[in-house]
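Example (one chain per record):
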Amino acid sequence: MQLRYSFRLYPNAAQQAALARAFGCARVVFNDAVRAREDARQAGRPFPTAGELSRKLVTAAKQTKERSWLGEVSAVVLQQSLRDVEAAYRNFFASLKGARKGPRLGPPRFKSRKDQRQSIRFTANARWKIADGGRLDLPKIGAVKVKWSRALPTTPTSVTVIKDAAGRFFASFVIDTDPAADQARMPATDRTVGIDLGLTHFAVLSDGTKIDSPRFLRRAEKKLKKAQRELSRKQKGSKNRAKARLKVARAHAKVADARREFHHQLSTRLISENQGIAVEDLAVVGLTRTRLAKSVHDAGWASFVNMLEYKARRYGRTLVKIGRFEPTSQVCSTCGVNDGPKPLNVREWTCSACGSVHDRDHNAALNVKTAAGLAVSACGAPVRPESVLAQREETGSHGFPTGNRAA
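Predicted structure:
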């Protein structure tokens, strides 16, 4: 099983300049590869192979006056940029054929030098290493200071250096973990739980526990509004506008980091305490088109459920998703009678058949658990761990744009 461990980097001025060159060269090679493919398509010729693109856009380009500066960065960075183009086209064609799940993808687009998030990847061939002093030694960049929040369990297979919109640098390591060792970390338990996700409370559990919604975006709205207003008043292209944009990006990053940390802590706690977990497959995309869109985005249900899913597979737990059309808020959890739909302002109701008084969210959580088949199971559902691709939301130092501590 592959996971990502991410840590904050603190490059000095010279190293930041070297990273900027590497980001720029990787972007140019990516755009050249996309342009070569598009030219071949418009001319009716077969797409150039990866080997042909490598010889033309990297090896031969370094010998020309116009692209001689490509030799200032590691060749591995340029080769990985070409592989990114190949993967993008592969996903595009798989999406056209219906072989790829999820929304339809478009063809690769040219990268802009104004893109705020940039990244480069080093594989083992680049001969990068973690020096004795704990610094990350990258070819043609130098030994960069790293803030290690925990030790790496095994030797990484690759490292991706990322610069986010807030101007922060991160190192993301791909780690191959041992499934048996991961499952041994979590003690055995026979507890199961159903979860009802909402806006008033972020989650209500079938045992009656209510977890308040932190509303990170709502709490930061005043500060974000002020920063955005200052940005809109700056002249385009000026240094003051660049500073104001960075201020807005940092404010948004702070909100995203806090939300992600909350999701990680809650999902890890639920996974460690329960063998079986049931959640509802919510129509998040549809809800984001309603007047509740901002609150739905602020809650981040999809991100939270994704964390539950990969952590359940990693630690040998079972996660069951029930259909979104299951009438969990209409059915009495005591007698099973469907009492009909109820408006959102009805938070408590009495069953017309048995007279039981129900809290709307707690009753829904109980029905979620029952619908998933976990209500009568002694140890949840049969555990069927599966292999999982590397997750962006895995452990790392605080402030990583795609994941914090997972425990």
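Caption: The radius of gyration is 25 Å.
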